[in-house]
Amino acid sequence: MSDISIATLLFFLASTVRQATPLLLAAMGGLYSERAGVINIALEGLMLAGAFTAAAVTHYVGNPFVGLLAGVVAGMAVAAIHAVACIKFKADQVVSGTAINILMIGVPAVVSGAVFLSSGSTPQIPRENLIPWTPVVIAFLLVPVTWYVLYRTPFGLRLRAVGEHPEAADAAGVNVNRMRYAAVLLSGALAGIAGAYLSTGQSSLFTRNMASGRGFIALAALIFGKWRPVQTMLACLLFGFTDALATQLQGVKLSGDEEIPVQFIHMLPYVLTIVVLAGFVGHSRAPRALGIPYVKER
Amino acid sequence: MRLLRELTFPLVAVVAAFVVGGIFVLLVGDNPFRVYGLLLGSALSWPDGIGYTLFQATPLIFTGLAVAVAFRCGLLNIGAEGQLYIAAFACAWVAIKLGGVTVQATGGPPLSSPWANLPAVLLVPLAILAAIGAGALWGAIPGFLKARFGSHEVINTIMLNFVAVAIVSYFTQYHYRIPGDPILQSAPISEAAHIPRMGSFIPGLPERIPLNVSFLLAIIACALVYVFLWRTKWGYEIRATGANPTAAEYGGISTGRQIVLAMAVSGGLAGMVGINEVMGYRYRYYEGFSDNYGFTGIAVALLGRNHPVGVFLAALLFGMLQRGGIFVDAFSESVTKDLVQVLQAIVILFVAAEALFRGSFGRFGLMKRSKV
């Protein structure tokens, strides 16, 4: 711990970026959904869907990019369930999201039990079939792209309008529900990439519940970043940093025999989010129509 | 008649979930009738099936009630998971600290020394109060944050779940684990804090089945929640706040206070899971003991129409699924016990997307809009 060389610093930086990547992908997905007015606490489940599918398909096909694509499709398919429940059937969005999260703990486990005769994991993928950096590049490219789409294109304007003032958007001729479907599906696709990165980039197989709360941290980063792309990226980097720090300090002994309790570093993102949400540091305001199903007046 | 109408919809949702789950079973290559037969048959056998079903249902009654009380105030408490972890640890902590338990490795220096060595008459009620109190306090935090700063309870309860797990894990790992123990669990609690298993006074029920008197506490809790919500002024004010906060405010109700109160009661109920776990089952705090009880509680409350009787019935159903799932795991080659998770998730989706059934069944007058 005493001599921090350039190499360890670089290693630490890379580690931060790698930890931030799945958060960033999922948070950008959440951003589209929530800016359109649909709460997406299902990010965790969508990531799991992408992670399992990508690992399974990569195992069979031997091509991680086909796996990645399959992960995207899986994320979108599961997001479609959330979208139909929330938009068409006006289900409570938080409840539907919770259901998706529980569903996606169960489904991969049952399927892998039947297909791979395991208790919830896929076979190991050989090293040359992994994609350690592609999703990282996608994630960080997504930030300027999302910014541009959101603030400089008609699609982005409509998306924001639908999340803030659906009635006004509707009056202006925007199909509110179609925009929301598009946004939720898009969030499924991005969370699917996030999942694919977990199983075929960061590690080399799918394991049970491997997102382990990252979907919720992504959600926290989204709120911490005030539902804006650049701030959200910074929040993801901060949370990625705490993650990398906790991993580095695991088991490191202080003077004497005291270990550094990493639990306190782990809880940092969550505590920060609570503090920001309470308005102690800046103010984080959700899109106005977030969580409210749109009923067209007749 | 009213009861029948209330029951129709949840039953339809459960049947629909079983149908979808059955198709899923078919897809992964097993016979759904065989799997469901296994699931229900093993959950209803005497004494093991019923004993374990009721044992599995106990925490779900508590978390179901917890979510229901918050729902009645218009709040979604997805923090029951964190509340029950904090509570279970507090419960174990009191039963260690005041139960004369010294935490130390054999021959090593003590990590923690007891403050007192209380007899069962004092220790049992104190440990129970610790569980309820700690849960209530942890639940009241998001309530306070909502009432004072308007920050959304859903996000705060999610965040506090992770904070709770981290805090409790810290104390277990560094202060209350017997040094050298490879499992992340606290030292065993004082025997004076053990509560009796039902097997000790029900003939034919072996004592190895961990069903304990906290199941009776759960039934009492159902009754008390009913009385609280529908027979007291506080309950009335909570329901008024949930039904229409603006009107309640005009009516002279301090909605902020009701929100904190509802969340505290909710957290306290969730915390009672700790009594079952620590005092009646494992006799120690065991890291990661909750099998998603807090989240399943949402399903239980929704399915039970946020009413204590409904919660009780829904918890029994989910308890059956949990118990039966273990047998499915053992006796089916292609279906694992995770099928239970899938079934629960589908039930939640169907109950949440109620309009789905209104559309197709409403026409036949099968489902009239119930006033909740």
Task: Describe the structure in your own words.
The complex is a heterodimer of chains A (298) and B (372). With 298 residues, chain A is mostly helical. Chain A has twelve helices and no strands. Chain B is built from 15 helices and no strands. Chain B is globular, with a radius of gyration of 21 Å. Chains A and B meet through helix 3, helix 4, helix 9, helix 11 and helix 12 of A and helix 5, helix 6, helix 12 and helix 14 of B.
Question: In terms of topology, how is this protein built?
Answer:
The complex is a heterodimer of chains A (298) and B (372).
Chain A (H helix, E strand, L loop, with lengths): L5 H30 L7 H19 L2 H25 L4 H23 L18 H19 L1 H11 L1 H6 L4 H27 L11 H11 L4 H21 L13 H4 L1 H10 L21
Helix pairs in contact in A: 1-5, 1-8, 1-9, 1-10, 2-3, 2-4, 2-8, 2-9, 3-4, 3-8, 5-6, 9-10, 9-12
Chain B lengths: L1 H26 L4 H12 L4 H25 L7 H18 L22 H30 L3 H24 L37 H18 L1 H11 L1 H6 L4 H17 L1 H10 L10 H11 L4 H24 L7 H14 L2 H7 L11
Topology order of chain B in helix (H) and strand (E) letters: HHHHHHHHHHHHHHH
| Proportion of helical residues of chain A | 55-70%
The proportion of strand residues of chain B reads under 5%
Mean pLDDT of chain B: 90
Helix content of chain B: 55-70%
Number of strands of chain A: 0
Keyword list:
heterodimer; A: 298 residues; mainly alpha; 12 helices; B: 372 residues; 0% strand; globular
Outline of the structure:
The complex is a heterodimer of chains A (298) and B (372). Chain A has 298 residues and is mainly alpha-helical.
